[in-house]
Amino acid sequence: MRAFDVIVVGAGAAGLAAASRLARAGRSVLVLEARERIGGRCFTRRMAGVGAPVELGAEFIHGRPQATLDLLQAAGVPGVDSRRAQRLLRGGKLVPVEGFSEAQKATRAHAILKTKDLSFAEFLARKKLPPLTRSLARMMVEGFDAADPGRVSARDIVEEWSHALSASQMRPQGGYGPLLETLAEPGVKFLFRRRVREIRWARGSVDIDGFRARRAVITLPLGVLQAGDVRFSPDPDKARALERLASGPVVRVAMKFRDAFWEERFPEVAFFHNVEAPFPTFWTPLPMRAPLMTAWAGGPKAARLAGLPKKMLLERAAASLRSVFGRVPRIEGFLAQDWQADPFARGGYSYVLVGGQGARAALAKPVRDTLYFAGEATDAEEAGTVAGALRSGTRAAREILRNRKQGGAK
Description:
The chain is of the alpha/beta class. 30% of the residues lie in helices and 23% in strands. The protein has helices at 13-24, 66-75, 99-104, 120-125, 131-143, 154-161, 176-181, 222-227, 239-243, 299-305, 310-325, 359-364, 386-405, and strands spanning 3-9, 29-32, 44-45, 54-55, 61-62, 79-81, 86-90, 93-96, 169-172, 189-191, 198-202, 205-208, 211-218, 231-233, 245-248, 250-256, 271-273, 281-283, 292-298, 333-338, 349-352, 371-373. Strands 1, 2, 10, 11, 12, 13, 14 and 22 form an 8-stranded mixed β-sheet that branches. Strands 8-7-17-18-19-16-20 form a 7-stranded mixed β-sheet. A 3-stranded antiparallel β-sheet has the order 5-9-6. The longest helix has 20 residues, at 386-405.
């Protein structure tokens, strides 16, 4: 069996970034991927009659992350600014709301977190807040962060929201799928439908399903690592880091209609919310105009939906949509994705548990110059995003190249 310099486990954004950087530095790289495609939790589909790409995984670019901007530039793909106008169902009417900025108000005056971390739910309970601010803050921590308010670190949320929610959002033109395909270097060996069950290693040697290398980059999603679906022999001692992080559930349903019926009343509104609905958030492809509406649930609401058949997910999404608009036209097609039920993801993206500061760095730390860990859960600055995954993959590749130049000293 051929030996490689590096084996990369996973062909999501982190694995592709690592493999690309290593291959361009002259290393021989094998990528093992359990799916039949690249992209991981970036999953772009198409629907007949819909001009816009249909994302079942990552969709937005939050802020102006350099890693993503660099990839867009290298690929020659423009970013398309999304619209931000929102409507909230309140008192039976859809009223204008600035959900992002309103939720941020809940994180002001956070001195109580200096001496002790709290769950976000307890943090909210200790503050005097208007009902709207409290409701939207809870909706955002569940939806935007896919987190359980009773478990997620308030310190981490406050730090994230200090910049993430105020930033603009773009989409890659054509979707994330085609963008990530540009990272598939011709010199990298890809093997698909290769579900890794065991990683055997010793310092300077890795054996995965008979494939050998001196080093490996592990980009398995947090939920897969926590489930123990892949056995390490010997144990790389990441248990403490894994215990302080959680994998947030996400369920989304893309619904196609004959016409974009919402544009009759709200031609420039991109987001619609009903905090009480099973799917509390909907959005359109604006500025692209297409008869497509995406239903989104994260955190505890997504956990209650997880595992349902796709037709039942559609029923819940349609009922939630009717709670917002009243009667709606017939749904002519749909695509649904339950990331918690996906065995190769076991969740949408990660969040930090109460008292879990430093867990991401601990998970990212290389083990004996042999095992390197990447993925959005290992990036402290852009966690939960494609940018974080890209950064982590590039970081792992640089660590390998730097340690090789230094003789592998650890």
